[in-house]
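Subgroup meeting minutes
Present: P.N., E.W., G.H.
Scribe: E.W.

1. P.N. recapped why we're keeping a running log of single-chain structure predictions: easier to compare across weeks, and new members can see raw inputs and outputs side by side.
2. G.H. added today's entry (123 aa).
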Amino acid sequence: VQLVESGGGLVQAGGSLRLSCTVSGRTFSSLSMGWFRQAPGKEREFVAVIRSSGTRYSADSVKGRFTIARDNAKNTMYLQMDSLKPEDTATYSCSAATVYYSDYTSSRGYNYWGQGTQVTVSS
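Output recorded in log:
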């Protein structure tokens, strides 16, 4: 299974970016897909997840600003990030889970990971 992210970059505070994660090598519709991020010197943290059922959850820090979505026909997951803040600066990685794992905020529940894409928000 391969996961390839795209869409990162440099944006001013208050701006928007959309990240994409394209999956190959597995039936995409059966996967739970998540986004995590890691800032320099900090631990990786959960951002959002969309289950194979379409159920979505997101971290409190991004609720109302970030939207996770998926297009099963394109084998692609998205993270629309609006009202970006400098504290959103991090490397964002997409992840895939092949089996149900109740604690969707834990990276241990995900089998596959992308290489990450950098998001930098300037003040």
